[in-house]
């Protein structure tokens, strides 16, 4: 129980002070004029001014509150290295018991694990949350049992009491780590990209100057190199294929190092084409010719070479073919010398006219078999005696014309196989597509019929020939969709997919297996033209395998979700299809630096005169220190008692009740008047 005098003035303090000054002035004036009652007048003024201040005697009934010590126990991944986890737990148990043995002390023991995703150790976040739940006036100290490697120092709160770090780990610890300084997310196929790596030894390292580095691309057998330690390594890499390329770097574990979890890194780079070179050969001007040109020119990544044969087929004026253009077109250069430079050749309503001799077309056939791509957009010319089919290209074309041209309206449709093929799968609104007015009748020999027309006759046939690809579109009326005839249709999307399938874009492969990662979860996707697929065999980073079934979610597309237990490279296999994917960051944040250190926390600890002690040197004793005094020394750490209390009851008694003020003031005033009256 404690008591104190409090004031509750009836008037503002400035007005009370003014009245007090007036009372003092009147007393001094009386003294100057020689009035003998000036002292009584002054006392009367003091009593009245004091009454205006309204003093009271306040008595509080208080209950003392215990001091709170926050004990944060770091249980993050880096704390599981060596014997840190056991040492930390034992030390936390011992310190908690030591604190609870002190009078008027409570302990809040707070375990701190890894942050969500790859956020690392969130010590300050946990400390801020703990302080928000406790009155600041009761917090007597903060103890951190950690390796000092935290990743949220910017969230450090303002501390009301000393903080101490009890450091895990040993001074003899050392670790070798692999650092990827820069790695682009995309790279152009055929061009070198430069990755910068660095291998560093931290802690009490043995002083090695070089080590082995293993590099593996897409899970293939690694290549071994001997590289220096402590230097930046510039590594030029040319991506082997389009799509996702997974590059794994591994530094073999050295004897005595703390962990090998930071000895490997995964870099995932998407390979993209720089410029797609397309050769468009138009047999004669027609309404659909501009459709192809506009489609290809609208893509900034396409280099288009286009020539059109303007001479009408019925015109016979005896002019030599080589004199039909103002500038001689380099047909020999294009079709013999530089044909392999093109990614795609399109024949749009082209027929044999002697401009491209058989040797050129035979070279196109070889170009396809060696990995090139040819798209034939057939018009009536394809069914004629001068058809491009009546050339060496017949060996690679998947269907033969019957010489019949059907001139009637029809609505293009996607076949059952086409619903599974990536070129035509998912094309929406088939019931509302506009009609085409012409179809060339085909007799298919091979390939995949993905679209049909009149009486379910083949309309779009796709085929693989050797290393290359061929597409045959049995109509020259696709342009009607682009004009919006009868509502139009997905002409742009269809032709874009068709062109990219022929240029072997990975996302349009009809038989494919790949995965999309999100944190530690991967979505495994299998595309196939078959009705069923087998289970996917997953090889985890530790070498263990697991069978995962797939579920068909749409025609030709099978998926499943898989939660990867570890960070690292996963290999997927299903039948003849295989893929690799990396889960987690290139280097987990928890293992970027593993040597215990107080460097990051030192400014925060020093601000409140706390200290750092290594647990390998033994547990420090705990002392009581006053606020502002040094809170750590050799073999001891201190906490600051806060003397917090809870007020149970408050009683107030006025020191100058009204009747007493009136009595005393009246007596003093009357006394002054009587004394002065005698004079």
Description:
By secondary structure, this protein is an alpha/beta fold. The strands form nine sheets. Strands 16-15-17-18-24-23-22-20 form an eight-stranded mixed β-sheet. The chain has a five-stranded parallel β-sheet with strand order 4-3-5-6-33, with helices on both faces. Strands 8-14-13-10-11 form a five-stranded mixed β-sheet, with no helix packed on it. It is elongated. Helix 1 runs antiparallel to helix 2 (38-53) and helix 2 packs antiparallel against helix 11 (658-678). The two termini are 53 Å apart.
Structure described in brief:
This protein is α/β, with parallel strands linked by helices. The strands form nine sheets. An eight-stranded mixed β-sheet has the order 16-15-17-18-24-23-22-20. Strands 4-3-5-6-33 form a five-stranded parallel β-sheet, with helices on both faces. It has a five-stranded mixed β-sheet with strand order 8-14-13-10-11, with no helix packed on it.
Layout of SSEs?
Layout: E1 2-7, H1 13-32, H2 38-53, E2 55-64, E3 67-74, H3 84-100, E4 105-112, H4 123-132, E5 139-146, E6 163-167, E7 174-182, E8 186-188, E9 192-203, E10 210-217, E11 223-228, E12 232-238, E13 243-250, E14 264-272, E15 276-282, H5 289-297, E16 302-308, H6 331-337, E17 344-348, H7 358-369, E18 373-377, E19 399-406, E20 413-414, E21 439-444, E22 448-452, E23 458-465, E24 468-473, H8 479-482, H9 491-502, E25 512-518, E26 521-527, E27 536-539, E28 545-548, E29 551-554, E30 557-563, E31 568-574, E32 577-583, H10 602-607, E33 612-614, E34 621-624, E35 632-633, E36 636-639, E37 645-654, H11 658-678
Parallel strand pairs: 3-4, 3-5, 5-6, 6-33, 8-14, 15-16, 15-17, 17-18, 18-24, 34-36
Antiparallel strand pairs: 1-2, 2-37, 7-9, 9-12, 10-11, 10-13, 13-14, 19-21, 20-22, 22-23, 23-24, 25-26, 26-30, 27-28, 27-31, 29-30, 31-32, 35-36
């Amino acid at each position: 129980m404690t008591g104190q005098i409090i004031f509750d003035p009836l008037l503002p303090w400035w007005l009370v002070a003014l009245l007090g000054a007036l009372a003092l002035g009147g007393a001094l004036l009386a003294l100057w004029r020689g009035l003998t009652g000036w002292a009584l007048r002054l006392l009367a003024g003091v009593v009245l001014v004091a009454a205006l201040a309204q003093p009271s005697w306040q008595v509080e009934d208080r209950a003392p509150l215990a001091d709170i010590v926050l004990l944060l126990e770091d249980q993050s991944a880096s704390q599981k290295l060596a014997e840190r986890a056991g040492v930390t737990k034992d030390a936390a148990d011992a310190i908690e018991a030591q604190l609870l043995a002190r009078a008027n002390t409570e302990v809040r023991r707070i375990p701190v694990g890894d942050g969500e995703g790859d956020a690392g150790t969130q010590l300050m976040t946990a400390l801020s949350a703990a302080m928000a739940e406790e009155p600041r006036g009761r917090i007597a100290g903060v103890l951190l049992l950690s390796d000092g490697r935290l990743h949220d120092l910017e969230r450090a709160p303002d501390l009301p009491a000393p903080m101490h770090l009890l450091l895990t780990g040993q001074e003899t610890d050392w670790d070798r780590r692999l650092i990827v300084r820069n790695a682009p997310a995309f790279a152009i196929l055929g061009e070198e990209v430069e990755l910068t790596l660095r291998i560093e030894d931290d802690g009490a390292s043995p002083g090695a100057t070089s080590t082995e580095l293993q590099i593996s691309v897409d899970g293939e057998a690694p290549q071994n190199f001997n590289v220096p330690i402590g230097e930046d390594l510039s590594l030029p890499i040319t991506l082997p294929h389009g799509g996702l390329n997974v590059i794994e770097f591994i530094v073999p574990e050295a004897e005595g190092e703390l962990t090998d979890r930071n000895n490997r890194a995964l870099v995932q780079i998407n390979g993209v084409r720089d410029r797609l070179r397309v050769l468009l050969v138009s047999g004669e001007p027609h309404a659909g010719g501009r459709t192809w040109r506009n489609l290809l020119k609208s893509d900034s990544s396409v280099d288009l070479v286009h020539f059109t044969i303007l001479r009408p087929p019925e015109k016979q004026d005896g002019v030599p073919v080589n004199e039909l253009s103002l500038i001689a077109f380099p047909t020999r250069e294009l079709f013999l010398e530089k044909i392999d430079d093109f990614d795609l050749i399109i024949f749009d309503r082209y027929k044999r006219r002697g401009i491209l001799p058989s040797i050129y077309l035979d070279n196109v056939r070889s170009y396809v078999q060696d990995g090139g791509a040819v798209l034939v957009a057939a018009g009536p010319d394809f069914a004629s005696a001068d058809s491009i089919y009546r050339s060496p290209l017949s060996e690679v074309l998947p269907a033969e014309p019957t010489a019949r041209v059907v001139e009637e309206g029809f609505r293009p449709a996607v076949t059952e196989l086409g619903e599974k093929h990536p070129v035509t799968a998912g094309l929406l609104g088939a019931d509302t597509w506009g009609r085409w007015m012409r179809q060339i009748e085909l007799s298919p020999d091979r390939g995949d019929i993905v679209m049909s027309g009149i009486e379910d006759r083949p309309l779009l046939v796709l085929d693989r020939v050797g290393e290359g690809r061929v597409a045959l579109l049995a109509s020259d009326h696709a342009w009607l969709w682009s004009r919006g005839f009868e509502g139009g249709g997905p002409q742009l999307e269809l032709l874009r997919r068709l062109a990219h399938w022929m240029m072997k874009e990975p996302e349009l492969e009809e038989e494919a297996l790949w995965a999309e990662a999100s944190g530690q979860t991967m979505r495994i996707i299998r595309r196939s033209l078959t009705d069923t697929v087998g289970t996917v065999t997953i090889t985890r980073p530790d070498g263990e395998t697991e069978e995962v079934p797939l579920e068909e979610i749409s025609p030709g597309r099978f998926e499943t979700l898989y939660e990867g237990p570890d960070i690292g490279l996963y290999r997927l296999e299903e039948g003849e299809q295989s893929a690799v994917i990396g889960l987690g960051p290139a280097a987990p944040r928890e293992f970027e630096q593993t040597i215990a250190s107080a460097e990051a926390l030192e400014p925060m600890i020093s601000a409140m005169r706390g200290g750092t002690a290594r647990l390998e040197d033994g547990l420090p004793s705990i002392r009581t220190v006053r606020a502002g005094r040094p809170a750590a020394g050799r073999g001891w750490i201190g906490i600051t008692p806060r003397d917090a209390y809870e007020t149970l009851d408050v009683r107030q008694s006025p020191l100058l009740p009204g009747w007493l003020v009136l009595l005393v003031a009246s007596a003093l005033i009357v006394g002054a008047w009587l004394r002065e009256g005698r004079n």
